[in-house]
Design a protein that fits this description.
Elements lengths: L18 E2 L6 E6 L2 H10 L10 H17 L3 E6 L2 H10 L6 H15 L4
Helix pairs in contact: 3-4
Length: 117
């Protein structure tokens, strides 16, 4: 299932903010950062150009995405991402620490924790 969230931002390749993790009703985990973990993400990511320039810009976009998904009736929720653990997981998988790896990590971690139910 593809999730499409409209945004008024410039046209550039951006990291998806939401990841569907379960059967109907669709549960959507949104990797959530605090200021410190967002800074760590920008340092460790192999695709920093896909990330927002600042924590404030990311937070505004993430909150908007969360609201839009919930308004669409999806079970969207914040998933606090341990950036160091996610980066280590990507290394162990032999993958770059990019948006696709982060999305897969969030999906697996949220399922394992039973989050969002």
């Amino acid at each position: 299932m593809k999730l499409r969230v409209r945004s008024g931002h410039k046209k550039r390749r951006r990291e998806p903010l939401a990841v569907a993790i379960g059967p109907e009703p669709v549960q959507v985990a949104i990797a959530w950062y605090d200021r410190k973990s967002f800074s760590q993400l920008r340092e460790l990511a192999s695709d920093p150009e896909a990330l927002d320039e600042s924590y404030e810009a990311w937070l505004s976009s993430a909150e908007s995405t969360l609201r839009q998904l919930q308004e669409q009736g999806l079970a969207a929720f914040r998933f606090p991402l341990d950036v160091a653990a996610a980066a280590a997981w990507a290394r162990e998988q032999g993958r770059p620490f990019n948006g696709a790896a982060r999305a897969e990590y969030v999906t697996e971690a949220a399922r394992e924790q039973g989050t969002g139910s």
